[in-house]
Amino acid sequence: MRKTKLKLLIAGAVAAAASAVALIAIPASAQTAAFTVTNSWSTGYQASVVVKNDTSNTLPTWKVEVTLPAGSAVVNSWNAIQAGSGSSYTFTPAGWNATVAAGASVEFGMIVSGTGRPTSCTVNGSDCGVATSPTTVPASTAPATTTPTSKPATTAPTTKPATTAPTTAPATTAPTTAAPATGTPVGINGQLHVCGVNLCNQYDKAIQLRGMSTHGLQWFPDCYTNASLDALANDWNADLLRIAMYVQEGGYETDPSGFTGKVNTLVDMAEARGMYALVDFHTLTPGDPNVNLDRARTFFAAVAKRNAAKKNVIYEIANEPNGVSWTAVKSYAEQVIPVIRANDPDAVVIVGTRGWSSLGVSDGSNSSEVIANPVKASNIMYTFHFYAASHKDNYRAEVQKAAASLPLFVTEFGTVSASGGGAVDTAGSTAWLDLLDKLRISYANWTFSDANEGSAALKPGTCASGSFTGTGALTESGALIRSRIRTADNFPVG
Ligand code: IDC
């Protein structure tokens, strides 16, 4: 999420100063668009486009047309509907972001393969001020790529609803932007995005992340320490830490700023070890996520704003919707996702599914309800959860089928029964993990904790002892899962 401030389409006075570059003047008061390269690599780049309404009237809709030079193409975009191919592309509102109030702006993003920057751009038919030369800027020589990592002021969201405050984080959650260690999962893969049905890395290659979920943060504080996360990163070779922040049951609702701070601290601890952090808004009881909608808005506004510059954060907005229709879950998602996008535009967001994130199967439905009526947002994935002793072949068949159409992420699974206890089902767990490996579906196992239940990876008493490495600390479930997670990732890089 590093913002490199390489602004190629510049409006107004700034444009006039760039005398070496031919620019088309725009009126002082107009709809403008600014194209910013937010991340680049040898074979492509990520860009953000901000459409700003500088007039005193509401803009009812917008359309941005971009032309790229030969050899460059848009491969993926989010927060806009993309049409076109080859060198010409059109971007129109994603559905919820058509209207732009006077003085406000909307933002969308894209991944481009090839290094050619746009040769032209219009917003609502008017030229948005395109540099006609140079058309390509090698990332290594771009003047601003090493300058500030913070988002330029012009891209700051101006339409954030008042309910998405707070805007100030407690002192304990001051942002850090430590560069991920090279050779680590985050160091190699960088900012992730969804491409087709896959999770893709900064080279636009499909990857699978394998890692562990915490137990409820309110119950197991001793389990998430520097020593335990060192073991997870270096002994388990985990790519991912899921941070399960229960909302009820003594969780977030009892101390919003305290739990927000705990989550942020774990995001930093994962980042320092080059692991991705999956921020799980662990709704469970009640099962309708809309009950927690206001809390979700407040929580995600704060966490997304604070962590916007990081590359390692993925947001999971509702753990396990249950007793609620898909349309209700979708409505919740379409209200929470814009809050995240307004603060952290390029992060992957994962949406829970009906029937305890079973794609509807545990409620007698299936993934077709999602495929037929997807969430109106891009750069998103859908959640699937299973417990190996409870969820068998019919669930595996559904995942196999759904994975052809939907980007899936197994943000939680257990080797045992859905109660979280009982015996490890080794054959069932192996069948599931083989399927996920084959489909390159990322996963996090429940739980990296020493809870006295079969799903816990660590023997009771491990966290108090402070000794986490090796197999001595592991339960049967922990030994099985560690052996699956610690094999080489071989992330594709080119
Ligand atoms: C379980 C814990 C258990 C705790 C309970 C509280 O394992 O110690 O008492 O939650 O609600 C899920 C949920 C996850 C459950 C887990 C096992 O996401 O919170 O954890 N499970 O029941 N979905 C299916 C299983």
Give a short summary of the structure:
Helices cover 23% and strands 23% of the residues. By secondary structure, it is α/β, with parallel strands linked by helices.
Question: How many DSSP H or I helices?
Answer: 12
Distance between the termini: 20 Å
> What is the CA-based Rg, rounded?
23 Å
Given this structure, which CATH class of the largest domain is correct?
Answer: Alpha Beta
Q: Ranges with pLDDT <50 over ≥5 residues?
A: 1-28, 131-175
Number of domain modules: 2
What's the architecture of the largest domain in CATH terms? Alpha-Beta Barrel
Mean pLDDT: 84
Instruction: Tell me the number of strands.
Output: 21
Structural class: alpha/beta
Q: Based on CA inertia axes, which overall geometry fits?
A: globular
Which ligands accompany this protein? ligand IDC
What helical percentage do the residues reach?
10-25%
Share of β-strand residues: 15-25%
Strand order of the largest sheet: 14-15-16-17-18-19-20-21
CATH topology of the largest domain: TIM Barrel
Specify the CATH homologous superfamily of the largest domain.
Answer: Glycosidases
Largest sheet: 8 strands, parallel, barrel
